[in-house]
Amino acid sequence: MRYLMRRIIFYVVAFVATITINFFLPRAMPGNPAEALMSKFGGRLNPLALKSIEIAFGLHEHEPIWNQYLQYLGQLLHGNLGTSLAYYPASVSGLIGTALPWTLFLVGLSTIISFVIGIIIGSISAWRFGGAFDTFMSTFFTFTYAFPYFWIALACLYLIGYLWGVFPISGAYSMDLVPTLSGSFVFNVIRHAILPSLTIIFTSVGYWAVNMRNTTITTLAEDYVTMAEAKGITLRRILLRYAGRNAILPNITGFAMSMGFIVGGAILTEIVFSYPGLGNLLFQAVQQEDYPLIQGILMIISFSVLAANFVADVTYSLLDPRVRVGGNQ
Amino acid sequence: MTDNTVLRVDSLWVDYYTRSGPIRVVQDVSFEIRRGEILGLAGESGSGKSTVAQAVTRLIRPTVGRMGGDVWLQDENIAQLDRKALRHIKWKKVSIVAQSAMNSLNPVLRIRSQFDDILQSHGQRNRQKNFARMCELIEMVSLSAEVLDAFPHQLSGGMKQRVAIAMALLFHPDLVIMDEPTTALDVIVEREIVSEIKRLQRQFGFSVLFISHDLDLLLRMADRVAIMYGGYLMEIGSVQEFAHPLHPYSRALLQSFPAIGAVGAERRRGIPGYPPDPANPPGGCRFHPRCSHSSERCGSDLPVWEAVEGAGDQRVRCIRWREIPNESHTGSD
Amino acid sequence: MSAASPSSTPAQGAFRKFRERNSRILPNIKARIGVGLLLAFVLLAVLAPVISPYSPTYTGFSLGASPSPAHLLGTTRSGQDILSQLIWGTRPSLDVSLTTGSITMLVAVAIGILAGLLEGIIDEILMLATNIVLVLPSIVLVIVISSYISAASDVTISFIIALTSWPWGARVIRAQTLHLKSKDFVKAAIASGENHFRVAFFEILPNMFSLVAANFFFTCLYAVVTVASLQFLGLGNINAISWGSILYWANNSNALMIGAWWWFLPPGLAIGLLGAAFALINFGIDELTNPRLRREGP
Ligand SMILES: Nc1ncnc2c1ncn2[C@@H]1O[C@H](COP(=O)(O)OP(=O)(O)O)[C@@H](O)[C@H]1O
Ligand SMILES: [Mg+2]
After folding, report:
1. What is C235-297 written as a DSSP string?
2. C-contacting chains (≥3 CB pairs under 8 Å)
3. For chain C, percent of residues with pLDDT exceeding 70
4. How much is the average pLDDT of A278-296?
5. For C22-58, how does the pLDDT look when each residue is reduced to its tens digit (9 = 90+)?
6. In 3-state terms, what secondary structure has residue B54?
7. Using 50, 70 and 90 to split pLDDT, how confident is the model at C6?
8. What is the ipTM, given to two decimal places?
9. Residues of C in contact with A295 (CB under 8 A)
10. What backbone phi and psi angles, to 5 degrees, belong to A23?
11. What is the β-pairing status of strands B175-179 and B207-212?
12. Separation CA C274–CA C121 (nearest Å)
């Protein structure tokens, strides 16, 4: 439990740091982007939007920066992320609220599937170390590792979506459907999610497989695995309870560290497939220079990544008794 | 082979694969262990003791190395068995207490589940019976049954070692191999564990291959002792025979430890020079570059594993062993 | 491994190890293919003026033509030769990835060694910063920062990427520094009162050559992909010819929907191959330094 307390404190610090970066970043940019905005929208800005920009970027030079910061924090505490410029008068939190569930659904599911597949492939590779399967997989993954997400997404979209034409290539559900909890709507949503999630799985599975392979190889050389063999323990038990259980631990830590990468890749995938999640929203915001929205999305994504990290930490502490139960060491 | 022999190793060799090709780290090793006997195996670090232990239990993975020769466990040749047959013999006939018993327990499983894994793998599925057996064993090594519910990291080094010994005795094996079981422990705990082992061995009558770099310890606890150097056995004989060892290396090794009962003034005397590099061993007798009795022939002729006539099963691997006692009497040393 | 002979100093020992390792890099097949690929790209970049069939910016060809003997990869919607663009695009892609790799590596090495060497409060602070940056979603941060800076140059983008991707390297380098610090020759140097910079440069750095190199190539891989992603999104300099900007214009002109595979497949393949070159070198070094990942069997 001491371990989890320490992690919680870390995440609180990290979150405060994120908010602070979020606050200072636009102010530290050369050529205040807010001024560019003012000149772009000029008199067309209404008071609410003006206020939103003001808080995001601190137009009022006479206000001390410390006050601006406190004001910004106060707004955040009320869940107020300002007003969007591009989708005026929609609020930033409202826009994010609509997009977030789609991202959680797509990225969460694909990541879990990819993690599980990768762990299985990696274990088999390690056990057949140097064999045909291992050689093929390591070579194959070296390449999937190296290709940009968005290009795999494009290729997927072109080959499967466009040439073959079996799966829908954009959006989260057909435009003519009204979101309900009916079976046909759910089916429609799943069909739309297939290509983007295939892309995410395809590009990230290699990461888990290669890592799991390497940690398993290291674990297989541990004394307790050799001793398990000496004890005549069945191969299945050795693989699952001795090698697997221990080899997966560093991967869970790795999971936390890779969340940033995963989310980044997922964002690009969303953009290619016009999937209505946070990534796509961010892309729209960037194109239309909707700074309050950009800032809000950055914050929410950072927060989600921290939350995912925390989940990984809790999982880790459940799987490793050295963390869960104190002891002599 | 007589009924009295538990293990007979014949012309055992082991190669490890390295970047520059296979290297031979164990060569022409032959010895026997009798029922109820403790055989001590001594030698400097790197001489191949652990490799012998692993080869005898077929723990050298095919990706790591290869082995040859015969390893007879009673009427079965371990070196020839297939994987399946091997698994059923393992732990029932021969068990190991590893060199690094500190790391030989799975860190994420409770001691109890680790006992259970062994029992279940060998077809013993009755949970109540299994638990009773564990308790019995744990108490036998002077621990309380609570230990069963602990994770390895919650136990001290000595406790872990006791658990490892308890596990090794699970199926009443004929032979228990102990690879430096006390090296990582402090002197007091070492003494406790050694007397524990002796007590259990007397009680159950299993044989022990006790590996240690501490010849002194072996002379105190074993019935017979074998000396290993550079992958070869150099000498084997009873503890009594080792009062006057025949091989120059045995003597040097003996002298590098303080004599039993020696007082502070008697300091350790190391053997000058370095152990051989297995990738590039010296020709002839492996020990000749460091031997104070070496002749020209020692560098070219490989000495055979020669029985010392008239002296039980004492054997020695030295072409000059007959001449040396006289020499050392004249003080040319 | 044989013990260092008594006559060699630790630095000589380290150098010999470095040379030994160096001579082992080439036999390693992964690293060898990686280095070969990388050299091929370097050659392509250097010889671009010679190899390229046309000027990459010339717009006078027929518009949106499919591949033909005259234009092996067809032309863009605005009438440029795609093959020529692809060849010239090698330059900025190589450039920006190597620059980013270097900057990131410098930051990672500086912070990692500093934290490992000094310990105490400075270490704590540096590691806290490292762990925070580590969990930040770096691509998102890079997208946001480059959108704040309109039309960021390649060098700016290199700096932005470096700013968000140094923690991976810093962590392993710190761990390795701590490990080296427990070695006798470093202990001796510290005990003899040598100043920290000397210890870092002469005792520690030479002993983590492979780690630093692996980290460098890993960042290069990350940079190629990230820069291409940014350009694909229309951030950064999309008017200069680069693989990412070719993809941007291809996507902007709906190349996919008109089935112009020759426009968007080749640049992606090029990015992937360059990335794979870096990945292969990185894996190769990893396998050389982690003996357990090496198969030495028959
Ligand atoms: N997995 C391995 N690969 C290559 N060489 C090894 C391996 N294990 C041990 N060796 C080498 O084999 C020799 C004998 O080692 P070992 O049997 O562990 O000696 P001891 O137990 O007597 O200290 C040593 O030179 C050691 O370096
Ligand atoms: Mg040993």
Report:
1. -S--SS--HHHHHHHHHHTTTTTTT-HHHHHHHHHHHHHHHHHHHHHHHHHHHHH-GGGS---
2. A, B
3. 85
4. 87
5. 444 445 777 888 899 999 999 988 887 887 777 777 7
6. helix
7. very low
8. 0.85
9. 144
10. -75, -45
11. parallel
12. 41
Please give, rounded to a whole number of angstroms, the shortest distance from the CA of C279 to a CA of chain A: 6
Per-residue pLDDT reduced to its tens digit, A14-23: 889 888 888 8
Beta bridge partners of residue B42, listed in sequence order:
B212, B227
Res. A62: pLDDT tops 70: no
Decide whether any atom of ligand 1 lies within 6 Å of the B16 Cβ: yes
> Exposed, middle or buried by CB within 10 Å (0-12, 13-18, 19+), for A110?
buried
In chain C, the N- to C-terminal Cα span, in Å, equals 21
Which tokens sit at C283?
A: 């894996």
Task: Report which of B19, B56, B41 is spatially closest to residue B174, judged by C-alpha positions.
Answer: B56
- Residue with token string 């234009």: C71
Query: What pLDDT score does A262 carry?
Result: 80
Contacts of A172 (CB under 8 A, 6+ apart): A102, A189, A192, A193, A275, A276, A277
Contacts of residue C2 in chain B, CB cutoff 8 Å? 277
B16, B44, B249, B280: which to mutate for ligand 1, most atoms within 8 A of CB?
Answer: B16
- Chain A residues lying within 8 Å of B86, measured CB to CB: 232
Phi, psi of A327, rounded to the nearest 5 degrees: -170, -160
Bridge partners of residue B226, in order along the sequence: B41, B236
Segments in A78-179 forming alpha helices (H): 92-127, 132-146, 149-156
User: d(Cα C147, Cα A25) in Å, to the nearest integer?
Assistant: 12
Q: How far apart are CA C123 and CA A132, in angstroms?
A: 45
The Cα A165–Cα A157 span in angstroms is: 9
- Enter the DSSP assignment of B224: E
**B62: β partners:** none
User: Do C253 and C245 meet the contact criterion of CB atoms below 8 Å apart?
Assistant: no
